[in-house]
Amino acid sequence: MRYKLAVLIEQDKDGFYAWCPALPGCQTQGTTMDEALANIREAVSAYLDTLPEEERAQYASQEVLNTTIEVDVA
Questions:
Q1: From CA 63, how far away is CA 39, in angstroms rounded?
Q2: Going by C-beta distance under 8 Å and a sequence separation of 6 or more, which residues neighbour residue 18?
Q3: Which residues make Cβ contacts (< 8 Å) with residue 32, sequence separation at least 6?
Q4: Cα 18 to the chain's mean position, in Å?
Q5: Tens digit of each residue's pLDDT (9 = 90 or more) over 7-66
Q6: Cα–Cα distance between 34 and 42 in angstroms, integer?
Q7: What backbone torsions phi and psi does residue 58 show, to the nearest 5 degrees?
Q8: Which end of the chain has fewer CB atoms at under 10 Å, N or C?
Q9: How far apart are CA 33 and CA 50, in angstroms?
Q10: Rounded to an integer, what distance in angstroms lies between the CA atom of residue 57 and that of residue 38?
Q11: CATH classification code of 8-60
Q12: What are φ and ψ of residue 9, in 5° steps?
């Protein structure tokens, strides 16, 4: 079965850090964006494999919307 989950990725001095907010502790990193995406897909899949089917659907049904804003600071 295919699930859709939100992941967040931030660039830092070491590369890219990725995590899935819906799955506590599900996080990884990569030196490139593509590597971080591949790693988080693997981490999410492994995490979901440990859950009963009912719980998988519960976590996967949540969607996170993300945007950026600009603010003026005096």
A1: 20
A2: 7, 8, 9, 10, 27, 28, 29, 30, 36, 37, 39, 40
A3: 15, 16
A4: 6
A5: 999 999 999 999 998 899 999 999 999 999 999 999 999 999 999 988 888 877 666 777
A6: 12
A7: -65, -45
A8: C
A9: 26
A10: 22
A11: 3.30.160.250
A12: -135, 130
Cα(45)–Cα(48) distance, integer angstroms: 5
Q: Indicate whether this model's pTM tops 0.85.
A: no
Are 36 and 21 within 8 A, CB to CB? no
C-alpha closest to that of 26 among 12, 45, 11: 45
Tokens of 19: 């995590």
In the chain, domain spans: 8-60
Q: Where do we find the tokens 């897909």?
A: 41
Question: How many residues are given for the chain?
Answer: 74
d(CA 14, CA 9): 13
